[in-house]
# Entry
Amino acid sequence: MVHIGLRCTKCKATYPKGTLYLCPKCQGILDVEYNYDKIVLSRKALEQSLDRTVWRYRDLLPCSKEAKEVSLGEGGTPLHKASRLTAILGTNVMLKDESRNPTGSFKDRAISVAVSWAIEQGAKRLVSASSGNAAASVAAYSAKAGLDCYLLFDSKSPPTKHLQPTVYGAKGLSVKNLFTGTPQDLSELLYTLSNRLDAYNIFCWALINPYTLEGNKTIAYEICEALNWSAPDAVVVPVGGGDNLVAEWKGFKEMLGMGLIDKLPKMVGVQSTKADPLVKAWKSGSETVAPIETPSSIASGINVPYTGDHTLKAIRESKGAAVAVDDEEILLAEKEIASLEGVWVEPSSASAVAAVPKLVESGIVSKDDVVVCVLTGSGLKDTDAARKFTPTVQKVNRDLEEIMRAFKRM
Ligand SMILES: [Zn+2]
# Structure
């Protein structure tokens, strides 16, 4: 077997495959381990593979060879060269467009792998909590696999983010203050709920289910492949719980370890100034991320009170940075990405592009660098946010002169 077990990232204790939650000995985050000596992944074999989904990299995922994957065609998203944004942002920007996944966000990668793994573990029903994107993914992949799905939504997330999982047939509840308190409070709630419902806990955060990190590594693999087997100079990732950044860092390190690339990128985590636990910890030089009281950003996907300590560690290892941007800068970036590059993303995703001028100013990236911004989710997820910067469409009669006059005023 290639996936051999889990190892605590803090005390290095090892645990059997399938273990959930934190290290029982030291409360450290568990990491899914592989026997890399048994993985033979060549450029040639990958280049000849017709599978464009995350399952293209099956040897680097936890599921056994015999297990049937639950797939809706996740992964294989484009990496756009953003020449018009590059002209105004001061460095070479590329956009990894994760809105192209089946439910419109990067979470489909994580959930395709985690649901397939859960079924291999005998799961018959799933439970999770989410500010929106993970809920849609869990609901869609549950539908595909024929599993019952129980979800708690954050009451503050946009209405479409409650609608989408419900359309897929999930049993969902909007919960007030779902993400207030400490990560331990949430973990306790989900642990008890999963026991009471006899459901597998597929909450999308390494602190609760380490397997939900694995599918997201494939973003890094795809970036390296698209850049003709090289890593960019920096990868800018919106950060809520922090798994996406950590997973990508793991993916780049695996690619380097297997000799498929020859350098690692700087990892940059971005949050809103209104929900910035990671950035506060980064600035203070702390080893741990303390929760904040009341996150209030418009960027629902990263409007979190806490981020995992693993994110801080990955950023430091990569010699990257954590950056905060204002909600106004996020909305301006959303408008610019759409109107200059033809890609409409939700506010959380736009935060990555909003951070680029700050990275150039502070010298974290230079004008010749290649900077990949990971655009995590579709703009269709949060139409209310886009209305804040978009003019109302005028109504006119079906009259050529009136139509011409109206266009000339715009
Ligand atoms: Zn430990």
